[in-house]
């Protein structure tokens, strides 16, 4: 039987990769073809993404796909992280390198925006969680500083839209990535004109919005020649990486939640319509667009970034330890010695993450972690307890409580963290697939090509293609006691 082959191009905040996906004999196969680093670059006082490096590596990956004997692809799909964007000028000219969401230019922008338009009105239109890194505040900072690129910009393209433009020359914005910006009306699925007007933002540079499953255009001929590929369709998928990851949740039944566990943690439920009310505003929940017109009602919080930044700090201090070794040390460490709020501003992007954790604990009169295992265990226990805090919020806003959690992404293979999560939530957990973003990317491409009829059909295919691990709650009384102590730390 012939295999249908798709290239999933997945850019993360730490690395990018090109994964070849195949569908045959009612199974999905994955092969990682190319992986590369994605570094933030500081220029003077600002942090940027190196767009040309990333595009070069994208093309290198496509060339490797061809060199591996896969010259004919059914489709190519690109997904990335959210909120960041680039600008295009006259004659389709790239204007500079995109800023990184961790750049300080958005400091104080939320407060400035609320002076011009009430916070409640912004949320009523967009239904998006307030974070200073949102595209809304990035664009406002450019307006407020009279950024010269805005004088010549003709289009604003979010990161996956920007790569799609480089691949095809077409200028559009995928609904799922546009929905992360806090510039989109959650109900009409069009740009929120009232917000643009009140904040004097340039509505004229915003592109037309299209839905996933659309064939955007053919891969440009010069890229085909450079990569030695036959012509291929570039397909608009759920191009926000979380939209693709949620599309790959192998869920059954109802009353389930998902956790996309990686650098960031995205915890929520899939609903048909936005949930926008006083409680969702107070709880700072977001309504992001999903595949097939769904809404990802979720809370975006810090994830394994805390752990990775600790590893970086220790490596710089000439103490390189493997991921597995640190996990083992955490399992042997003293439980519940201290708890942090993963979303505290102190931990957003400190120069020294272990020291920032120590400072958090000192401010709250807690014991301090004394070794690397205790630092890691503190992070994992704190994440699990914070997830419980968020699930309690979700349950307060839904007609029926969550009965099961599905964990996808890189964190789905972290056994100790996943056991902590099921203990804290006191509900069963299913973990996997690890490569959820790439799998969801491929599933939506297959839907666009008519190989699959729906996300439901795709999820059934995923469940029979990848190993899934089940976790059941343990030590519920202890975890409930710790949650009661810790939840006062959380916001």
Describe this structure in words.
There is one protein chain. The protein is of the alpha+beta class and 491 residues long. It has 2 domains: 4-238, Nucleotidyltransferase, domain 5; 240-432 and 468-491, ATPase, nucleotide binding domain (Nucleotidyltransferase, domain 5). The chain is built from 19 helices and 20 strands. It has helices at 51-67, 109-116, 119-126, 135-144, 149-152, 159-168, 175-178, 193-198, 221-227, 241-247, 278-282, 305-316, 323-332, 353-363, 372-397, 415-425, 436-448, 455-463, 476-486; strands at 4-11, 15-24, 27-37, 40-43, 46-49, 75-79, 85-89, 93-95, 153-158, 173-174, 209-210, 214-218, 233-236, 256-261, 264-271, 286-289, 295-302, 404-408, 429-431, 469-471. The radius of gyration is 22 Å and the shape is globular. 51% of the residues are buried.
Sheet with most strands: 7 strands, mixed
Low-confidence stretches: none
Structural class: alpha+beta
Q: CATH homologous superfamily name of the largest domain? A: ATPase, nucleotide binding domain
Number of strands: 20
Task: From the 3D structure, determine the CATH topology of the largest domain.
Answer: Nucleotidyltransferase, domain 5
Q: How would you sum up this structure in a few lines?
A:
The protein is an alpha+beta fold.
Describe the structure using short key phrases.
globular; 2 domains; 491 residues; Nucleotidyltransferase, domain 5; alpha+beta; 4-stranded mixed β-sheet; 20 strands; 19 helices
Topology overview:
Elements (H helix, E strand, L loop, with lengths): L3 E8 L3 E10 L2 E11 L2 E4 L2 E4 L1 H17 L7 E5 L5 E5 L3 E3 L13 H8 L2 H8 L8 H10 L4 H4 E6 H10 L4 E2 H4 L14 H6 L10 E2 L3 E5 L2 H7 L5 E4 L4 H7 L8 E6 L2 E8 L6 H5 L3 E4 L5 E8 L2 H12 L6 H10 L20 H11 L8 H26 L6 E5 L6 H11 L3 E3 L4 H13 L6 H9 L5 E3 L4 H11 L5
Parallel strand pairs: 1-6, 10-11, 14-18, 18-19
Antiparallel strand pairs: 1-2, 2-3, 4-5, 7-8, 7-9, 12-13, 14-15, 15-17, 16-17, 19-20
Helix pairs in contact: 10-17, 13-15, 15-16, 15-19
